[in-house]
Amino acid sequence: MKFNRAVIKVGSALVAPDNNGCSGKHILAIARFITECNQAGKEIILVSSGSVAAGRKLIQHGSPVPSIPVKQAMASVGQMQMMANWQRFFDVPCSQLLITHGDLKDRERYINIKNTLRILLANNIIPIVNENDTVATDELKVGDNDNLAALVALVSEADCLFILSDIDGVYDKNPKTNPDAVMIPKIQEITPEIYAMAGSTNNVIATGGMKTKIQAAEKAVENGIETYILNGSDSTVFEKLLKGENPGTRFVANQAATKAKKHWLKHTLKSNGHVMLDKGAINAVVNKGASLLPSGIKSISGGFSAGDSIDIIDGESKERIAKGICQYSHRDLSRIKGKNSDQIETILGFCPSKVVIHRDDMVVLSK
């Protein structure tokens, strides 16, 4: 396996295969795969569906198609069941992140999610992400965990996305009604014809289908993230993955994830301000690949918010040498510029990050 960090999305049909509470029937093999990946030095983030299905038997509803308030109540109680079910299969701690699309759209909350994931992974903790179904409104919902997984892959800067369901991959026609359907092992480009092959889900608890999986794959590959749709109910799938084989449908990334990120930072993201650096900070950023610390900042300009892109300027030559995503607003940065990172909390009363721009959120423009 060539990936370093992967997001694995696990569907409801795998977490609660009978729509009547959590089960270890399928996720034991998934957990074993994650453990072997971790032992090989690879980082894994889980995006798990199943909270509604896990809580289904605990909430009286009297309908085969539960209402939204009933589903939210199911999710509320089912989330606890689902997390406990995952944790029992791991020897390392798991963490829970409940997020909405509103969290991902808000620049400051986006950075907070990114920082949290970085710290969890650095401490060998498995993050388990789900949409916050209990409180999310339609305007703030992603709507399905396939697309949520793609967004998590983006914010976590993963280089691979595995979408696990109870189907082998993408077929040229519906395999449930067409016995001659053929699975497509590799998709180089997602075209309208590929979308035309996607049907809809018949599961009253699930929120996705093949269409949402292809949408998720499109988001991911455009940002350099290899994506696979796989049958998570087949334990041999994970044995094949560990051998470097493709047991499902692979969506080929347009370019390497690192290259895609740098291109986005350099050419797409508009800068809303700049910082002037001293000689030591310039050397650290340009020649040592270091993150930007507040101590090396001489002055700032512009009205930017946390999560905005800013330019990094050589204080002597006035040359633009880099740009990146700033962890602080211009107001907060103006108070901590030139200070040691250990002083941030004392000055601001909080410290979301000891760096102003993380090296992974920066692109050097010249050397």
Features:
single chain; 367 residues; alpha/beta; Carbamate kinase; Archaeosine Trna-guanine Transglycosylase, Chain: A, domain 4; 2 domains; 8-stranded mixed β-sheet; 5-stranded mixed β-sheet; 14 helices; globular
Question: How does this model look, in words?
Answer:
The protein is of the alpha/beta class. The protein folds into two domains: 5-261, 3-Layer(aba) Sandwich (Carbamate kinase), CATH 3.40.1160.10; 269-364, PUA domain (Archaeosine Trna-guanine Transglycosylase, Chain: A, domain 4). 36% of the residues lie in helices and 19% in strands. It is built from 14 helices and 13 strands. It has helices spanning 12-15, 27-39, 51-55, 68-87, 101-105, 107-122, 145-156, 192-196, 210-221, 236-242, 257-268, 279-287, 330-336, 344-348; strands at 5-10, 43-48, 94-99, 126-131, 160-165, 186-187, 226-231, 249-251, 271-277, 297-301, 309-314, 320-325, 362-364. α7 packs parallel to α9 (210-221).
| First-to-last CA distance | 34 Å
Largest sheet: 8 strands, mixed
Secondary structure tally: strands: 13
Rough outline: globular
List low-confidence stretches. Answer: 200-207
Question: Looking at CATH, which topology of the largest domain would you report?
Answer: Carbamate kinase
